[in-house]
Each structure stands twice: as C-alpha cells, then as structure tokens.
Design a protein that fits this description.
The complex is a heterodimer.
Chain A (H helix, E strand, L loop, with lengths): L7 E6 L2 H13 L5 E4 L5 H6 L7 H27 L12 H27 L23 E6 L7 H10 L4 E5 L2
Antiparallel strand pairs in A: 1-3, 1-4, 2-3
Helix pairs in contact in A: 3-4
Chain B lengths: L14 H27 L2 H32 L2 H15 L1 H7 L1 H10 L5 H5 L2 H10 L1 H32 L2 H29 L12 H24 L11 H32 L2 H11 L4 H19 L2 H4 L2 H23 L16 H22 L11 H5 L7
Helix pairs in contact in B: 1-16, 2-3, 2-5, 2-9, 2-10, 2-15, 2-16, 3-8, 3-10, 3-11, 3-16, 8-9, 9-10, 10-11, 10-15, 11-13, 13-15
The chains are: A alpha+beta, B mainly alpha.
Chain lengths: 178, 404
C-alpha cells in the first residue's frame, strides 16, 4: 500500500464533552482509523470510536493457564521425578499440597502476561509517533482534547475530512506530518 | 394473605402473587407428604436429618440476605439499591424460620450423638462436650441467635419503612452505623450456630475454618438468589425500567468473588487436615472421600467451583441478566449439595456409617423452600420494590420518586 503523504488531520477541543460528541460523529461518518487523546481516561470515548473489546483478557487467560500448568508440572518433576522423598507415606504426586503453588503460578503467569501483553498490544515502547509533530499536541497531557483521523482511513480525503472536522467546531484543525 | 394496597408506589407485579400461591402449594404438599411418610414408615431419624439439611439450606439464604443488606448499607453501590427490597423481605421472614426451628428441637435425639447418654458415658471427651451441647443449652443458644437476627432484621426494616415515609437523612446514617457492628454480630452468631447445628453432628471433630466456609456459602447463596429474583422482577414493570446492565454486572462480580472465597476456604480445610493427617481430624474426610460420597465431592469441585468460576469470568455473561440468573440458580442448588455433603455421611444414633441418600432429602428441603418462598414473596409485595428515599434513587431511576 502506498504511504499517504501525511499521517492525518487533528482537531483540538476544549472539553471532554466536545471530544465525545466529535468522536461519535466521526465514527457515524464512517471513519474507523481514528484516535482520541485526552489528559485523563474517558471511558465513553473509547466506546465511541469503536474500541469495544480488548484482547488483553485472552492474553491473561493464556498466561494464567501456562503459569498454572507449568507450576504443577514443575512440582511434579521436583517431587515425583527428580528428587522423590517419602513424606509420611503420602503419594509422591501429592496434588492437594501442589495446589497452593499451582495457584500462585497461575496468578504470576496471568499478571506478567497482562502487563507485557498490554504493552505489546499497544505497541509500546514507541519512541516515535507522528502526533507529536503537532506543536499544540503537548497540551493533550494538560487540558486539551484531540481527535486525529488518520490518512490511511479508506474514507480519508484531504479536503473533505478537513471540512468535516471544521464542522465539529474545534478550536483548530492541524495537519499531522509523518 | 393480605393484598398490597393499590396506592403503593412501585408495586410488585401481579406475577408474584401467582408464584406465592404455587410456592405455598409446593411447600405444603411436600412437607405434609414427608411427615405422613415418616409416620407410616416409622422413620423419624430420616425425616429429621432431611429437615436439618433443608432448614440449614434456607436459613443460610435468609441470613446471607441479612448480611448482604448490611454490607450494602455500609459500602453503598448502585447494585445495593436495586436488591435492597428483596434483601429486606428475606430478612423480615426470620420469625417464620424461628418457628421452623421448633421441629429441630424434637429431632435432637434422632440426629445428634451427644444427646445419647449411653454413648457419652463411654467417652471422656464427649462427656465434656455434652455439657456444652446438652439440649437445654442448645435450645437456649438457638433462641439467642434468633433473638439477635430478628432484632437486626426488625430494626433495619423499621428504619427502611420510616425512610420511605419521611426521607429523613438521619435514617441513612443510622442504618449505616448499625450495619458495621451488625455484621460482626452476624459473623459471631453464625459461627456458634454452625458449631451447634452442624459441626456437633460429628462431636469429636473440629475445624476452625468451617464457620467461614458456611458464611461464604451463605453470602454466595444470598447474592445468587438476588440475581435470580432481580432477573424475574426485571421482566415486569416497574423494575424493567430501573434495572440496568451495570447493576447485574456488579452482582455477577460479587458472585465470582464468593465462589472463589468458598473454594479457597474449602480447600484450606482440606489441605490443612490432609497435611496434618491426625486421626481425630482426617476421619471427616475418610468418611467422605473413601466412600461413594467422593462423587459428590467431585461434583462440588466441578459445579460449586470450576463451572461457575469459568462462566463468571466472562464480562458478557455477567452483564446478561438472563444468563447470570441461570448461573445463580445453579449456585443456589449446589449450596444444597455442599450441605448434603457436610451432613449426610455423619454417624447418627443407630446409623454408624451415616444414612444413604433418601427421597426425603429432596422432598423436605423442597417443602421448606416452598414455604420460605411463599413467605418471601408475600413480604416483598408489602412494600414498594425500590426504597423511595434512598440516596441512590435519582442516580438509578433518573428522577425523584413518584410518591402517591
């Protein structure tokens, strides 16, 4: 696919309500490759631009299962295969005693996969992102709210999209270079 | 049966009157059938054993509701607003459960070994225990527990009715302040009641986590019962306009938490006793895991933990009232299975290895459940389905209460 000449167009808003309304309108207009930026999390905006299901729960489930199975097998290998000791006549594969460590390893696996899976799915760490090319974007971590429609969106059109963004009454619309 | 006055705001739907009548019929038919069978077959021990099982099952749901009621007064949360009236209604029928405790008093000689002089005389340890457990003290303590429970339920319901009428903000503070110590009293009384009613079935045996498993089970049963009732109520006006996905979601989250608490405490008891392997303690598990009861144990692991746990992990399921209600009904039913597992394999006077499963183990709990349900629905219909001047009213309903 040919790389578009710019990254996208960005509109700046002064309140979370305006950003939410703008996000809903942009999604209704058919834009799908868009992102919203705000100084604090706004749950509704994520839903408005189509982020309904995250894949993190699946990653955590896989991590938990791997941790649990790995934890049990580790104890089985230690107590029944590698260094078998008879403890008070109990079986070598003493599952009641293994559950504690199995449980803890499930939590550990789930937690590690949750943190690193989340970072990976967000493609973090990301040393460069075009949105920072817009000077005013620094205010996204202070008191301004931004909506960026990317140029690789099939419905993106340099003139039409700018006209659309202007119709949302933003404080200003800027071009985001690569 | 009195009928709710027509002027009652947010009244219970007419469908509830039908459920009340049917439950009463089921309750009377099953209990009367079991009583007649017990007399004809001369099997009072079986009847009283089954009665204890059914009684502890339903009293657990009631007390769980009282505890959850106090929990939501303390902690707030919108989920507490939508189930406050079902919780209060369940707590209001505690006097009926006190009356239903009376048959158990007549059952003492048939189900409790410590009431048998000839057995106690041959056992030094049992002689000490029998002094505490002796029938007069057993009855006196039972009366004390019910006094505490009924008093708590009465006060919370009286203040709630006063809040409906006046909306005085002092009442909210009063219910909140009362609920902290109230939960402590709940935990202490249920702990001692579990010693008296259940643990003393095997008087030589003891486990310190046992009351906590019972409390986790009671809270789980109460939250599950409320999730099922809320789904039923949300099929009709006025609750169909009030109940939202997020309220159901909160109930689902707490059900998941209590499924895990039950599993955690049950497993703790097993692993501590299994690791210690002492004759006085392990006998409880040998009686259950080296006999046919092991299949019940397996069913508990699967249906009291694994299946509901896996299902309740799903966010979509927790936000779907219908599917959550199905899981909730399963959980209310497996509470019965857990109590059966606790009660049935114990020795009874004349039955050294416990009693095998009998049809009365189904008929009597179902009969008690029918009577319980009829009383609960009757209590629920006496008041508006939502607390009118609760501080969460406008946030949930969207406008001020429409009082008559």
């Amino acid at each position: 696919m040919k790389r578009p000449p710019i990254f996208g167009l960005m509109a700046e808003f002064e309140s979370p309500t305006e950003l939410l309304l703008a996000s809903r309108k942009a999604y209704a207009e058919g834009y799908r490759r868009l992102d919203a930026y705000s100084p604090f999390p706004i749950e509704e905006v994520g839903e408005a631009i189509g982020h309904h299901h995250s894949r993190v729960p699946l990653v955590v489930l896989v991590g938990g299962l791997l941790g649990g199975i790995g934890g049990y097998l580790m104890q089985y290998w230690i107590s029944a295969l590698n260094y078998p000791i008879n403890v008070g006549g109990r079986p070598l594969n003493s599952w009641p005693a293994f559950i504690v460590v199995t449980f803890e390893m499930t939590i550990l696996g789930g937690a590690l996969f949750a943190v690193f899976g989340m970072l990976a799915l967000n493609r973090l760490p990301m040393p460069y992102h075009p949105v920072f090319n817009v000077e005013r974007f620094a205010f996204a971590s202070k008191d301004r709210f931004f909506l960026c429609i990317q140029a690789n969106d099939p419905r993106f059109d340099r003139a039409q999209t700018e006209k659309f963004l202007q119709s949302l009454n933003p404080k200003q619309v800027s071009e985001v270079p690569h | 049966m009195s009928y709710a006055p027509v002027t009652l705001p947010y009244p219970a739907p007419p469908a509830l009157a039908r459920i009340q009548r049917r439950s009463l019929v089921i309750g009377v038919v099953f209990l009367a059938g079991a009583v007649i069978a017990a007399i004809v077959e001369h099997s009072p021990a079986q009847f009283f054993r089954s009665y204890l099982l059914g009684y502890v099952w339903w009293v657990g749901i009631t007390l769980g509701c009282l505890a959850v009621l106090m929990m939501q007064h303390l902690a707030g949360g919108l989920w507490g607003f939508v189930i406050r009236r079902p919780l209060e209604a369940a707590a209001r029928i505690l006097p009926l459960l006190a009356v239903m405790f009376v048959p158990l008093i007549f059952g003492i000689p048939y189900i409790y070994l410590w009431d048998h002089r000839e057995l106690v005389l041959h056992d030094a340890k049992l002689q000490h225990q029998a002094q505490y457990l002796a029938a007069p003290w057993f009855i006196a303590r039972g009366a004390l527990y019910f006094l505490a429970w009924i008093l708590m339920a009465y006060l919370l319901n009286r203040w709630s009715a006063a809040q409906d009428a006046s909306g005085d903000p002092v009442l909210r503070r009063r219910m909140q302040t009362f609920s902290g110590p109230g939960l402590v009293i709940y935990a202490l009384t249920v702990t001692f009641a579990s010693f008296d009613w259940l643990m003393s079935l095997d008087p030589q045996w003891g486990s310190t986590v046992y009351p906590l498993i019972l409390i986790a089970g009671q809270m789980l049963a109460a939250l599950s019962f409320c999730a099922a009732i809320l789904f039923l109520l949300a099929q009709h006006k006025p609750m169909s306009d009030i109940v939202q996905e997020k309220h159901v979601h909160s109930l689902g989250k707490m059900m998941l938490a209590f499924v895990m608490l039950w599993a955690y405490t049950s497993y703790s008891q097993l692993v501590i006793i299994w690791a210690g392997n002492l004759p006085g303690e392990i006998s409880w598990y040998l009686r259950r895991l080296n006999t046919g009861w092991k299949y019940v144990a397996l069913a508990l692991v699967v249906f009291h933990f694994a299946v509901p746990f896996a299902l309740l992990l799903s966010r979509d399921l927790k936000r779907n009232a219908r599917r959550l209600a199905r899981v909730a009904m399963l959980l209310v039913l497996v509470r019965y299975l857990d109590l059966l597992f606790w009660i049935a394999p114990n020795s009874l006077p004349g039955f050294e290895h416990g009693m095998p499963f009998h049809w009365m183990d189904i008929a009597v709990p179902a009969g008690i459940g029918g009577i319980w349900m009829a009383a609960f629905v009757w209590a629920l219909r006496q008041r508006p389905l939502v607390p009118l001047h609760d501080q969460r009213f406008e946030e949930v309903v969207g406008h001020a209460p429409e009082t008559a």
